[in-house]
C-alpha cells in the first residue's frame, strides 16, 4: 500500500492504493483503494472515468450517502465495496444499477440502516446484484428483515447480520439465494430456535449463533440441512438439548457449545451425530467425564472441555477415542492424572492440562500417548523436573513443551536430552535460580524458541549456550546483573532476544556481536545508564530496539549506526536530557521513534545524518519549549507527531508546513497562548489536531484553512471566549469539535455555515458560560449535527419550536438551571432524539414523552418523587433509563410502565427514597441486563423473588443499604445463573461459597462484597470463579484479616484485581503474601492503604513485600508512636511485639537509632513470628540522631519521623 498519487497521477486523492489482480484473468493491473477516514467535497470522490478500480473502502468517514451510483456512472468495475462504520440510514433508488454486473462483496456494517421507527428493514436495491457473493449488514440496529430482501441475489454465499436486534432467525427473509453457505447471526437477541428455522436455505454449511440468549432449540430447528458442516452456539443460555436436535445432520463435523450452562455431558443429543470431528464444551458446568460420554463421539479429532469443574478422569474414559488428536482439559479440578486415564488416545498430538493444580508431571499416563507432539502443563504446581521424571514420556516426537508458571526450582543437566525433536520450550514464571549450557544438552539441533522469563535467574553459567538453531530467546524479568561476554557465541541464528526487566551492569559491544541475524532486541527496564555506539554495531538485520524505562541520560554520537533495516526505536521513560548530533546515522528505514517521558529541552534535525522514513514520532512528556525549523523537515513521511505535556508557548507553522503526509498532531497540555493564521493550514492529510489543556485565548480565523481532512479538533480546557466566524472555513467534515471547559457564552450565527464547513457531526460545549443554547449557529448544520453536549452551563430557557432540536440525535443538557417550560420543550415536543441527558436540571415531574426514537434517557440528580406509567407510552425503543439520585418514594407506579418498555436493558434507581423492593417491581423486564440499586437510605426490605423475572440479568449492584436488616443472598443468586457482575452488601457477619455459589455462576467475572457487618470470609468463598479477567472487591467491610488460602481456588492463569478499600485489615500474613507473590505477574492489589495497618512484629513480612508491590503509601495506624509513618520506611527493629516498648513509647518521643537501622537489612531474612522479640536493654536513654525532618507535634503525643531507611528491600 502507498499513497494513490504515487501509483497514478490521475488518482490525486489522500487515499492509499495497491495493485491487485483482476478477478477474471488473475493478471495484475487492477487497483484497490483504501480511503478509510478520508472525506471528500460532495458525496463521492472524483475518480477517473473507467479507471480499473476493483476494490474501494471508505470506513469511518461520516458518509451518509452511498456513492455507488456515482461509481456506476463513472463505469468503474468495482467488485468489493466496503462502507462500514458510517452514518448511512437508507439505500437510495437505483443505488447499485451501475455496479450490478461487477459487485460481488458489499460491506455496510455499523451503519444506521435499522435506526428508524419502522421495525422492518426493507429495500429492493439489492435485487439487481446477481453476482453478489458476500453481504454484511452487521451492527445496523436491525430488528426485522423484510421477506424479499435477497430476491435476485442468486449467487449469495455469505450473509452477516451480527450485532443487530433480531429476536428470531429471519427464516423467510433468507429466500432468494440458491445456495447460501454461511449465515452469521452473532450477538443478536435470539431467545429460541423454532422448527424449520433454516428451511429457506438448505445448502447452508456454517451457521453462527454465538452470543445470543438462546435457551431452547426445537427438535426440528436444523431440519433439512443436508450440507451443514459447522454450528456455533457458544455464549448462549442452553442447559440441555433434545435427543433429536441434531438428527439426520450426517455432514455435521464441528459443534461449538462453549460458554453455556450444561451441567451434564449432552450424550443423547450427540449420539445422533456419529461423524462429529470437533466438539467444544469449554466454559460450562460439567462435573463429570467418563466412558459413557465418550463412546457416543468416537470419531472426534478435537475435544475442548476446559473451564469446567471436572475433578477426575476415570481410567478407560478415552479407550475408544483412537481418532482424537487434540484434547484440552485446562482449568478443571484435576489434582492428579491416573496412570491409565489417557489409555486409548493413540493418535493424540496435542494435550493441554493448564491450571489444574497438578503437583507432578503425570509421566506414566503421558507415556501411553505414542503420537504426542505438544504438551502444555502451564499454571500448575509442578516443583521438580528431571530426565528421570520425564523419562517415561515418548519424548522423541514432542516438538512443544510448555511448563510456564509452575514452581520448578532447578533443572539438572540433560533434563531434556531425550527430546530429540523439541523446537519450543517454555519455562517462564517458575522459580529457577541458575541455568547452565548443559541444562539444554541434546537440544542443539532442534530448539528454536526458549522462554525463561520471570524466573529468579541470577546467572547463566560461564560457558556459551550451544543452540545454533535457536530463533527466539526470552530471559526477561529475572535478576540477572551480568552476562558472560561469550554467552551468545553459539546462538548465531537468534532473531529475537528479550532481556528486559533485569538489572544489567554496563553491556559491552562484544556481547551481541555473534547475533548477526538479530531482528528484535528488548533491553527495557534494565537500569542501563548509557549505551555506546559499538553495542549494536554490525547488527544489520535489526528492526526493533526497545530501550525504554532505563536510566539513560544522553545519546552520544553514533549511538545507532548503519542499522539499514531498522523500523522502530523505543527510548521512552528514560532521563535523556541531550542527544548529540549524529546520534542516528544511516537509519533511513526508521518508521517509529518514541522519546516520550524524558527530559529533552531540544529536538533537532541534526541528530540524524540523513533523511529518514519516520512516520510516528513521540516527544511527549519532555521539557521542550521550542523546536527548530529543521526538527521535522528531515522526516518528510511523518504521519503522527505526539508532543503533549511539554512547555511549548508557540508552535510556528513552518515546523510542519512541508509535511504532506501528516495526519495526527497532539499538542495538548502545553502553554500555547494563541493559534495564529495558517498555523495548521494547507496540510492535505491532517485529520486529528489535539490542543486541549493549553492557555489559548485566541484561534485565528484562517488557522485551519484548506486542511480539508481535519475531522477531530480538540480545543477543550483553554481560555477561549469567542470563535471567529471564519474559523472553520474550508473544512469538509468536523466529526468531533471539542470546546469543553472554555469561556464561551455565545457562538455567532454564521460560524457553521454550510458554505464554510460542509458537515459538523458532534460538538461538545460543556462547562462553558452559555445562558442561551447556541441553536441558531447549529441550525445551519440541520442535516448533519448528531450530538450536542451543553451540560454544565447556565442555560435557563429553550425555545419550543426550534427545528434543530428536532433533528439532533444526542443531546446533553445536564446540570443547567432549566425552567419547567424549557424541560417541557425538550421532553414534550416531538423530536427524533436517540439519547437524552437531563441530569441535575431540577425536574420535579414528568409528562408524556414525545420522543418515539429515544433509546437512552438520563434523568438522574433531579427531584422526581413519582413517575407515572403513561409517561413512557411512546418511548417503546428505550434501552437505558437512569433515575438515580431522585426522591422516588415507591417503585409501584414505575413498574406499571415496564410492559411498554420491552427492550429496556439497563436500569438505575440508586439513591432514592423507596422503602421496599418487592416481587412485582421488576416484572415484564425480560431483556434487562443491568440493574443498579445502591445507596438506598430508606430501604428496609428486598424480597428474595424481586429479581426472579429478570432471566437475562448480567449485572446487579445492591449496596449501601443501612436500614436493611436481612438480605437472602443465596436465594437471590440462585435465580440469576447468568450473572457476570455482582456488587452486593452482605448483612451476615461471615460469608462463604455457599452464599455466592460461584460454581453455579460460571460467567461471574466481577464480584463485590461489601457491608460493615461482615467480619470473616471463608477460604473457599472464591472457589468456582473461572473467568480469565477477574475483579474481586472486599470494600467497606469489617474484615480485619484475609484467610491465607483465600486465593488458592482462583485459577492461577486469571488476571486478578483484588480491592480491599475501606476495610479493617490490620496485617497480611506471610502465607497470604506468598500467594500474592505466586501471582506476581497477574495480580493487582488495591486499596490496602485505606486499612488500619498495625505496625508490630507481624507486619515485617508485609514491609518486605511492599517495595515490589507498587503500593509505597501504606501507612501505620498503630501503635501510636508509628501513627501515619509509611510502613516502607519503618525499620524491622521498630516493628516489635514487645508490650513494654509499645506502651512506654507513648510517653515520650521515640528516636530512630542509627546503629540499629544499619543492621535492619540482616533482620530481613528472619521469618516473622508473633513471639516476643529479645529485649533491648539500654544503658542510657537513646539520644535523638541529627534531625533529618522537622519534628512534628501531634496532640496528645510528640513524634519524631525517622529518616527514610535504605536497605536491601527498599
From TrEMBL:
PROSITE patterns assigned to the protein according to its UniProt record, in alphabetical order: LRR
Pfam family, one: LRR_1
This protein's UniProt keywords: Leucine-rich repeat, Repeat, Signal
Domain LRRCT: 1091-1138
The keyword Repeat appears for this protein: yes
GO cellular component, as recorded: cell periphery
Gene3D superfamilies: Ribonuclease Inhibitor
Chain residue ranges for the region called Disordered: 1187-1210
InterPro entries: Cys-rich_flank_reg_C, Leu-rich_rpt, Leu-rich_rpt_typical-subtyp, LRR_dom_sf, SLRP
PANTHER family noted in UniProt: AGAP008170-PA (PTHR45712), INSULIN-LIKE GROWTH FACTOR-BINDING PROTEIN COMPLEX ACID LABILE SUBUNIT (PTHR45712:SF22)
Name of the protein: RT10542p
Source species: Drosophila melanogaster
